[in-house]
Amino acid sequence: MLTKRFHPAPRHKDYVRASAVVTILAGALSFTLTRPTAAQAQLNLPQTQATQNSAAAPLAPKYAFEVISIKPTQTRGTSFMSGFTADGFRATHDTIMVVIMQAFGVSVISITGAPRWLSEDFYDIEAKMDEATAEAMKAMSPDQRKAAQRQMLQAMLADRLALKTHSETTDGSVYFLTTGKGGAKLQAADPGEALQLMGPDGGGVSGVMTRGRGSEGGRRFNATSVNMAYFVRVLTNELRKPVIDKTGLTGAYDFTLEFAPEYAPRAASDDPGALPPEPGAASIFTAIQQQLGLKLEAGRGAVQTFVIDHIERPSGN
Fold it and tell me: Is-contact 130 66, C-beta < 8 A?
């Protein structure tokens, strides 16, 4: 069954981003006795923050998909990467967890309260914009477009899955990425070949990083035009603990990192090419220091948590 959505309102001023993430979460949890407006709920803003923002600038236009189809699937999808197209959003054989990560710009390790089916059930999702919304997206800056796309995904999840969330910040265990005593051993990327990619918050991330099997039987990261903002996100997922950049490095770099993974794949389907590391594969802590001239140091810091308060399975279409 296809769901018809109303035509979006005209576009006004630049979209005001509501995220305090990224490393990767929405703003801090706020409690209030007043009822949030529809705009605040849709943007996942605390009441006080939304009130301040609305006083400072006109409300951003609200965009919505015109047609949404969410279908459970048991068959393996194509190689298409889930994400936005020129006129909508498409996910093939993907989990709702992945969509939530894209919608809110959060990492899987920061999410709590998620039922198991979010990561175990697979869906094909096809969401289409109307022509006016697609044209409006083309006229936006990259940051505006990413913010509007996230807002549309959040609205879809709230409407079709009754998703309710909030964010919390606590003091917890983290890693700090710093430069070693001898300085970083990183090759600056060729400016003419630098690749600029938007992060979940609309910017700040550059480069491409691929993963494969290392020469010592461990894991290998191949980085092209990668900056530290991107690298610490990769490390956060690899170590399953927040990694905070303290290197002071502002450029984009090409490098290779080979190491023994800290965690084995949960199943063969998670990493088909992965093999048990051989004794020669260094730990990620040693490899980063020896190969990149950087260092991971344990410490305490602000840990952002994205809490799923309520979610329902999507009804079959």
Answer: yes
Q: Percent of the chain beyond pLDDT 90?
A: 45
Distance CA 198, CA 205 (A): 6
Q: Which residue has the tokens 């998909």?
A: 65
Question: Could you tell me if 112 and 139 lie in one domain?
Answer: yes
As given in the structure block, the two tokens for residue 283 are 């730990």
Beta bridge partners of residue 93, listed in sequence order: none
All residues at 6 or more sequence positions from 92 whose CB lies less than 8 Å from its CB, including other chains? 77, 78, 80, 82, 124
pLDDT digits (tens, 9 = 90+) for 134-163: 999 999 988 888 889 999 999 999 999 999
Check whether residue 206 and residue 128 sit in a common domain. no
Please check whether residues 84 and 202 belong to one and the same domain.
Answer: no
Instruction: Give the tokens for residue 62.
Output: 């609200």
Please check whether residue 216 lies inside any domain of the structure: yes
316 occurs within a structural domain:
no
Indicate the residue type of 9: A
Domain total for the chain?
A: 2
Is 205 within the bounds of a domain?
A: yes
Model confidence, pTM: 0.61
Q: Which amino acid is at 95?
A: T
What sign has the CA pseudo-torsion 107, 109, 110, 111? Answer: positive
pLDDT: is 254 or 39 the higher one? 254
Strand partners, 243: 175
Res 152: pLDDT:
95
Write down the number of H helices and E strands in the chain.
Answer: 8, 15
Q: Which amino acid is at 92?
A: T
H or E stretch covering 238? helix 228-239
Residues 280 and 181 in one domain: yes
Please, which residues bridge with residue 226 across strands?
Answer: 253
Please check whether residues 297 and 225 belong to one and the same domain.
yes
Tell me the C-alpha distance between 54 and 263, whole Å: 45
Phi, psi of 289 (to 5 degrees): -75, -45
Tell me, yes or no, whether 288 lies in a domain.
Answer: yes
The pLDDT tens digits for 31-46 are 232 333 333 333 343 3
Mean pLDDT of 257-285: 62
